[in-house]
Design goal:
The chain has 147 residues and is an alpha+beta fold. The protein has a single domain, classed as Nucleoside Triphosphate Pyrophosphohydrolase (Alpha-Beta Complex). 16% of the residues lie in helices and 42% in strands. It is built from two helices and seven strands, in the order E-E-E-E-H-E-E-E-H. Strands 1, 2, 3, 4, 5, 6 and 7 form a seven-stranded mixed sheet that branches. A hairpin with a 2-residue loop joins strand 1 and strand 2. The longest helix has 13 residues. The chain is globular and about 50 Å long.
Length: 147
């Protein structure tokens, strides 16, 4: 097999979203960058090499909102497939939704967030608020998990 080139398909990109529900409200950010630029979603981003899922969720939460939290359990995972211009897949993200407990802070947009604020979970409706996939569903699931 010497001299033979091997094609390596791109791998999915592991990422986290920090799902914080406090006093019936979900903490959301409005994304500045693709793939969900302009949409409201949970703070999150790529997991760094050697970083645990919990640590990545807390880092992204702090970077994008100024909120400190405590990582709890994984709520769910989502496959985000970003289409290419030719109809294929340009990028594949595997988002790990981590429930986080609010510890301190007032939301302020940071890093790649345009805005950061609390939204009543009961009011989350994709027909009324432009949001990333399943934000309303995941927020309700997290709210049901809160003690």
């Amino acid at each position: 097999m010497i001299g033979q080139a091997f094609f390596h398909a791109p791998s999915p990109i592991p990422a986290v979203i920090a799902v914080v529900v406090h006093d019936g409200q979900a903490l959301l950010v409005r994304r500045a960058n693709p793939p969900d630029a302009g949409l409201w979603g949970f703070p999150g981003g790529k997991i760094d090499f050697g970083e645990t899922v919990a640590r990545a969720a807390l880092r992204e939460l702090l970077e994008e909102t100024g909120i400190t939290g405590e990582a709890q359990e994984v709520i769910t995972t989502l496959d985000i497939l970003v289409p290419s211009d030719d109809g294929g897949i340009r990028q594949h993200y595997v988002l790990i939704a981590v429930r986080c407990r609010w510890l301190a802070g007032i939301p302020r947009a940071g890093d790649d967030a345009l805005e950061a604020r609390w939204f009543p979970v009961a009011d989350l409706d994709p027909a009324k608020l432009p949001m990333s996939a399943d934000v309303d569903v995941i927020a309700r699931r997290a709210a049901a998990m809160n003690p």
